[in-house]
Sequence to fold (295 residues):
Amino acid sequence: MNVTSRIENNLGELLRVRQGFQLSEVDTGATPGFTGGKKKGKLALRARDKELAELQELLYANGFADDQRRVLLVLQAMDTAGKGGIVRHVVGSVDPQGVHLATFKAPTDAEKRHDFLWRIRKQVPPPGTIGVFDRSHYEDVLIARVRELAPPDELEERYGQIIDFERELVHDGITVIKVMLQVSYQEQGRRLMARLNRSEKHWKFHPSDVDERELWPLYQDAYQVAITRTSTGIAPWYVIPADHKWYARLAVQHLLIDALAAFDQGWPRADFDVEAEKARLRATFRPAHPANSAG
Fold:
């Protein structure tokens, strides 16, 4: 049985945010576009690793030939939703030379002296690469809204600045894939408790994780506003049910493959005389003259 046949070709369309979208209505335990359980899902993910790696190599090779196209994967989610797993199990299957990973923590004092997009622009992926933002410019409208770090009028201005910024990215040849991994409140609680119950996972836990969890309703409202305000035709949001980590990984892999395949790239033509270089190389196969020996 071909496991990839279980993935519907329109999976991306099923996850894409459209008019009237309500985050509260997302079934976080669902697996839209895939018929099969965890075992089949993991097999399907591995079955497409080679396809993703080959498309990424094409992108990387064409970057050397001055093709400006690239992909930016934006990952947003509440704690424990699986962003790290996406990076390891999906993006990790391609050549790391062609990946540009950026993680955005709380801004430093130096970064605060600039507008909120200043540090983001510095991490825009170069041509020929897959860029990954593990958290992103959206932190500045999510946390800022929940924690009241910026007045409402400034937040409204930021939504517009984000739309303009992403329009610039697309104009420069960047396909923007914005993913929100939506985990349930109950599943997040189980995952946090699992970290506390295993000493080797304590490093992944911070007491502030519970503080943020207590603000869950506010964060859901903030995500609802950010997603509906900034999901555009050229840079749409995809909300992926994430109670099943294997499904979230499979869905993101599908989105990446679709984006890279749409470039329809061939291998770049050599900018040198291939036959002449073959001849030069063959000449090096001739036995070297033996070194003169004394006596």
